[in-house]
């Protein structure tokens, strides 16, 4: 069942930080079980969302019925984060967030994804992203092999 028609995308603000932090934590735990156990608690992740993500990234939330379902954070042309509550995955909400990011990235969007994250890789590939490079994990704090993906709109170089 699609939840797209009832879902609104809006810019996030500081009042959203605690909910965004919770979504970030539960989504990573549910979708990436190979990650090391979370060392930071909810309060620390909330402060990181407030002090880093919301100040350095243009951040949107997907909202339905007043409830935040997911978020996307764009820094320049780099999609730093796109996370959903696990129970709302595969309902078009990630696509709504990604479409918003792409509207604000006329020359294209890049992102990094763990090579093991096959669901995310399939999602981005479905939406026209292509692999630019792969890495052994030296460039992320989890030290896991990752890859850079990029989407470029038709006509852009």
TrEMBL record:
Specify the domain of life of the species encoding this protein: Bacteria
Keyword check for tRNA processing = no
A single MF term (Gene Ontology): acyltransferase activity
Enzyme Commission number, as recorded: 2.3.-.-
Signal sequence, start to end: none
Record has S-adenosyl-L-methionine as a keyword: no
Q: Which residues form the N-acetyltransferase domain?
A: 7-150
| The organism's taxonomic lineage, starting at the top | Bacteria, Bacillati, Actinomycetota, Actinomycetes, Kitasatosporales
Top EC class, one word: transferase
Q: Which InterPro entries does this entry report, sorted A to Z?
A: Acyl_CoA_acyltransferase, Bact_Acetyltransf, GNAT_dom
**CDD domains named among the record's database cross-references:** NAT_SF
Name of this chain's protein: GNAT family N-acetyltransferase
Q: Which UniProt keywords apply?
A: Acyltransferase, Transferase
Q: Which residues, by range, are in coiled-coil regions?
A: none
């Amino acid at each position: 069942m699609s939840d797209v028609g009832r879902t609104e995308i809006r810019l996030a603000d500081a009042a959203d930080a605690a909910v965004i932090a919770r979504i970030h934590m539960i989504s990573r735990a549910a979708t990436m079980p190979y990650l090391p156990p979370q060392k930071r608690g909810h309060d620390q992740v909330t402060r990181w969302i407030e002090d880093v993500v919301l100040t350095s990234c243009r951040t949107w939330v997907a909202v339905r019925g007043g409830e935040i379902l997911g978020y996307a954070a764009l820094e320049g042309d780099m999609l730093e984060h796109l996370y959903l509550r696990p129970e709302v995955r595969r309902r078009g909400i990630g696509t709504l967030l990604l479409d918003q990011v792409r509207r604000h990235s006329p020359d294209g969007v890049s992102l990094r994804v763990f090579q093991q994250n096959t669901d995310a890789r399939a999602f981005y590939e479905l939406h026209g992203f292509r692999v630019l490079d792969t890495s052994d994990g030296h460039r992320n704090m989890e030290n896991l092999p990752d890859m850079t993906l990029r989407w470029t709109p038709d006509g852009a170089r």
